[in-house]
Design goal:
Largest sheet: 9 strands, antiparallel
Strand order of the largest sheet: 4-3-2-1-11-10-9-8-5
Order of helices and strands: EEEEEEEEEHEE
CATH topology: AttH-like fold
Mean pLDDT: 86
Helix content: under 10%
Length: about 170
């Protein structure tokens, strides 16, 4: 047992979350500190949804608190990275972009992926509520990524921009 704490200054950290163990559910999720802004984006998607993909939420804050919310329709990924998971080569994102416009407000986020790891959610140790149903997933690989986020646009008539490290998740 240690009787002293270790101090870390200026260290990056990844805050994991738990969306639960819903059968067949996947998600897009990310968070970054980009210059003087911090953002969180995401969506939860049901595997058997007949409505296509639901829009993302994008929540933007600065030192004074909440700035705005956007609803980008999609994330455009460029799967130019290859990693290995369970002895198999898997294509994963190298870059991603999403955009939105709300009246005169605009948003553009570019993600440059520096590192990615994958988990095959069909394995027993990654069981997600129903091991038999997991075998039928169309996107069974859970991808966790670290990279650089670049934010640009306009909010309330004022240009916004920033760049910083972030953590992002998707499925393949």
């Amino acid at each position: 047992m240690r009787d002293a704490c270790e101090r870390y200054d200026g260290t990056q950290a990844y805050h994991d979350h738990n969306w639960g163990v819903w059968r067949g559910v996947t998600w897009e999720w990310g968070a970054s500190r980009a210059g003087s802004f911090t953002f969180l984006y995401g969506r939860v998607q049901q595997e058997d949804s007949t409505n296509g993909e639901s829009p993302l939420f994008f929540y933007l804050v600065d030192s004074l608190g909440f700035r705005t919310m956007f609803r980008p329709a999609r994330i455009d990924y460029v799967d130019d990275r290859t990693i290995r998971v369970g002895g198999r080569a898997l294509r994963v994102p190298a870059r991603a972009t999403f955009v939105d416009a709300r009246g005169r407000d605009t948003l553009r986020v570019e993600l440059e992926i520096e590192d990615a790891v994958a988990t095959d959610t069909r394995t027993p140790q990654a069981e997600r509520g129903d091991p038999l149903a997991a075998r039928g997933l169309t996107r069974p690989y859970f991808i966790q990524m670290k990279g650089i986020a670049r934010l640009s646009g306009r909010v309330g008539g004022i240009p916004i921009s920033g760049e910083g490290t972030g953590f992002f998740e998707t499925y393949r």
